[in-house]
Amino acid sequence: MAIRIEPMRLTDIERCVELEQLLFPEDDPWPAVSFQSELAGSHNRYLTARDESGRMVGYAGVALLGDAEHPEAEVHTIGVDPDCHRAGIGTMLLEALLAEAGRRGGPVFLEVRTDNAPAIALYAKHGFHIIGLRKSYYQPSGADAYTMRRPELTPFPPVDRAPNQPDEVHS
Q1: Is residue 160 part of a domain?
Q2: N or C: less crowded end of the chain, CB within 10 Å?
Q3: Total structural domains in the chain?
């Protein structure tokens, strides 16, 4: 299945609400007004995944927080149509969110249900570690959530040296 990742538009909200109700029926699915508010936030980036026909099969959002000196990001949501689970769409959406966050730098945080093993495994594969537990985080179900953090991925600084020249060692 060919998937395109694109910025979310206001016209996508109805489909997001439909997917929320399918995916999170026990945990207060987001209504349209929540998506409208998120899209209006200048610090938020929301994306959609579309199949070859243009149908939205997933969505995701991240908040870019902090300032230039102390940036951080928080994944707000990732949702994939149940008919498309296990097709790599969640991975594509997460990687697109992490790319957005990576342009600013800093750590990335998220909450995930403690019983959502596939999501926890996906996040761990992308460098997230459990740093806390939020009891009864999801309402009204009362499900617990792990808080996970991916540390800032700092690239190595460029090294000015001739090719095949050994690194200097200082002691």
Answers
A1: no
A2: C
A3: 1
Look at residue 123 and tell me if it is in a domain.
Answer: yes
**In this structure, what token pair is assigned to residue 151?**
């540390």
Distances (CA, A) of 92 to 52, 59, 102, 109: 15, 10, 15, 18
Q: Considering 111, 137, 146, 168, which one is annotated as catalytic?
A: 111
Q: What is the residue range of 135's domain?
A: 4-150
Active site residue 152: no
Which one is catalytic: 38, 59, 100, 123? 123
Q: Per-residue pLDDT for the chain (171 aa), expressed as one digit of tens each?
A: 799 999 999 999 999 999 999 999 888 899 999 999 999 999 999 999 999 999 999 999 999 999 988 999 999 999 999 999 999 999 999 999 999 999 989 999 999 999 999 999 999 999 999 999 999 999 899 999 999 999 987 554 444 444 444 444 443
Domain assignment present for 61: yes
| 123 catalytic residue (yes or no) | yes
Say which residues have a Cβ less than 8 Å from residue 36's Cβ, sequence separation at least 6. Answer: 10, 13
